[in-house]
Amino acid sequence: MTMNSNNGKQDKPVITAKIDGFFLVFYNIAVFLGRFFREAFRPPVEWGEFVRQCYQVGYKSLALVTVTGFITGVVFTEQSRPTLSEFGVTAWLPSLVAIAVVRALAPLIAALICAGKVGSSIGAELGSMKVTEQIDAMEVSAINPFRYLVVTRVTAMTICLPLLMFYNALIGCLGSYIDVHAHEQTSLVSFFDNAFAQITFLDYTTALTKAILYGFTIGIVSCYQGWNASQGTMGVGKAANVSVIVSMFLIFIEEVIIVHVFNSIR
Amino acid sequence: MKENNHQVDRNTTVIKIRELYKSFGEKHVLQGIDLDLYKGENVVVLGRSGTGKSVLIKIIIGLLKQDAGTVNVLGEDVDQLKDADLRALRLKVGFSFQSSALYDSMTVGENLAFPLQRNNRSFTKDQIRKTVDIVLEAIGLPDTINQLPSELSGGQKKRIGIGRTLILRPEIMLYDEPTAGLDPITSMELNKLIIAVKERFNTSSIIITHDLTCAKEVGDRVAVMDEGKFIQTGTFDEVFNEKTGLIKSFYDYNFIQ
């Protein structure tokens, strides 16, 4: 007879049930992350599902990213003009907008949009699959559901968010150009020459690092919430909701840390 | 004994369970289960809701781990297997869920093809399509291939769920409440399908149910579970010959219904 535990008797809490539960969450997240890295580098790669997820994350977010990027560019330009014109330096508008967009706004906006749109959808989809036993059905069909569902989604998020971020930055600058052109009659070439003259390699690196990290965070958080959903439809709603809240919270924490680290290098 | 009982090979045990215990917190669900499933045999596990019947087959397939005891399936101790070995074993064991657990974003054809595509990557599209057609024909639903699960009735979903497990040609089938929530006529059709699966695909099965008609129709042997233990095992007639206690309640309730 194999004895795996104390015959089902419940262990007493080490500290209190609540504190134990708090640490258990961290333990479970660490196990989840560990499993992700273990599975991500093992063949076979689920290319079909990965491409489908890239389409869901990237292509289907394009419209929203375009609109928000454009509005951000226009509004930021409009808001900055009065202050700059007080000092007679409206010529700085292109570079000011470009620095703001590339360094801070584009990564954040793209990430927040993806956390809201894609993160909630991943949380709800996986949560729904979990509570309706579809994930168990994959397990019993000798399919690795973690690799098929989690690895593909997290990888797609991590790869697509940087692309969306650069696209968002470009559209933001274009929005700014249209506003600047309407007021200061600047040409497109002159605007973009001025805009990107002040952007350094480190700025691009910072933005790219942020976007990769935010994408990974949204993917992991949403998949973790969906994967561990319980309590039927209520659990599905909770998984979607918590995915967004936790992702956004972590994105802001990461923003502070990354800015601090890269500013110390600068 | 059932008509098809001649197929049972009592010298070959495909599932051997000894001293199986499982608890969830303070709730002791399984309390020392012993069970042998012979090749070609259909064993029906009968019991009230919440007595641990589904937990038993989820332990057999490795979805849950036991607290104590051994579960040996086709010569392998399930809880000792590594992930890759467990997956290899699962190719030989089909599991039909109570809720059918069909992938709701896929059509019926895609649901059936999915396990095959993932486990036999060398299969061509034509081979997969052909296998799907054979299984759909075997479960009597050849016209549903392009339908979504949301467009199917409860009975059809159960059949497709069974079909999805059959596509991998398992040696053992585990059915979790196959007739739950179905009308008597659809239940009867499901019972016939379970018998047909055994005959056509040469499977051995454990059928979890609380439906006595199902037990009588499909079971070569019946095991009645109460409070985490088998209180009686034998053929349907042997078990229900002496109708006392829980068995009497079961019998009376089912046949009054």
Automatic annotation (TrEMBL), chain B:
The keyword Membrane does not apply. Keywords: ATP-binding, Nucleotide-binding, Transport. One of its GO terms (molecular function) is ATP binding. InterPro entries: AAA+_ATPase, ABC_transporter-like_ATP-bd, ABC_transporter-like_CS, P-loop_NTPase. The keyword ATP-binding applies. Gene3D superfamilies: P-loop containing nucleotide triphosphate hydrolases (3.40.50.300). This is ATP-binding cassette domain-containing protein. It comes from Chitinophaga hostae.
